[in-house]
Design brief:
The protein is an all-alpha fold. The protein has one domain: Ferritin, CATH 1.20.1260. Helices cover 83% and strands 0% of the residues. The longest helix has 29 residues. The two termini are 21 Å apart. The relative contact order is 0.17.
Length: 173
């Protein structure tokens, strides 16, 4: 196994926690949603997130993963289930918010890997994950039409804040 610097282990721990949460977002959506088109969207995107999770599990040993994974599972499930109660538009706006955050989060890691010119294989893997997350964001944005009201903007801000707090915690624990 490759020896990564501590800062990169912290980032990979946050990525693993995030992908765990992402799988659970889609499980939360699927638990409450009966809309066939939204279910297909959630199933397809969940499969991608499960693939990302498997990739991260290959590079991050179990002992280095977040000790808060049970919390990330619950938070992810609620992040999917709550908007599912309000319908497809709320779900798509939520995915847009989450994936906008994830795009930025991965980009910060890619920028540092580029600046230090290290771990090109890992960088390529993270870039591929980012590309797929951006696709999720763009598809969700297209489906909600790009315009959301005040309530969904507020929910999106809460989701973004929660994602930021989760990353900060997962980097440490």
């Amino acid at each position: 196994m490759t020896a990564y610097p501590d800062w990169l282990i912290a980032e990979l721990r946050s990525d693993h926690a995030g992908e765990t949460g992402a799988v659970m977002i889609y499980r939360g959506i699927l638990a409450l949603c009966r809309d066939a088109e939204l279910r297909r969207f959630a199933e397809r995107h969940m499969a991608t997130e499960q693939g990302h999770l498997r990739l991260l599990e290959e590079v991050l040993p179990p002992a280095r993963r977040s000790r808060l994974l049970p919390l990330w599972r619950v938070a992810g499930w609620l992040t999917g289930a709550i908007p599912a109660l309000f319908g497809p538009r709320a779900v798509y706006a939520t995915i847009d918010s989450v994936e906008s955050f994830v795009d930025h989060h991965y980009q910060q890691q890619l920028d540092r890997l580029d600046a230090e010119a290290i771990f090109p294989e890992l960088r390529a893997m993270l870039a591929k994950c980012q590309e797929e997350e951006v696709h999720h964001r763009d598809e969700a944005r297209e489906r909600h039409g790009g315009v959301v009201g005040a309530v969904l903007r507020g929910w999106g801000a809460l989701v973004g804040w929660g994602s930021e707090a989760a990353v900060a915690a997962a980097r440490r624990l």
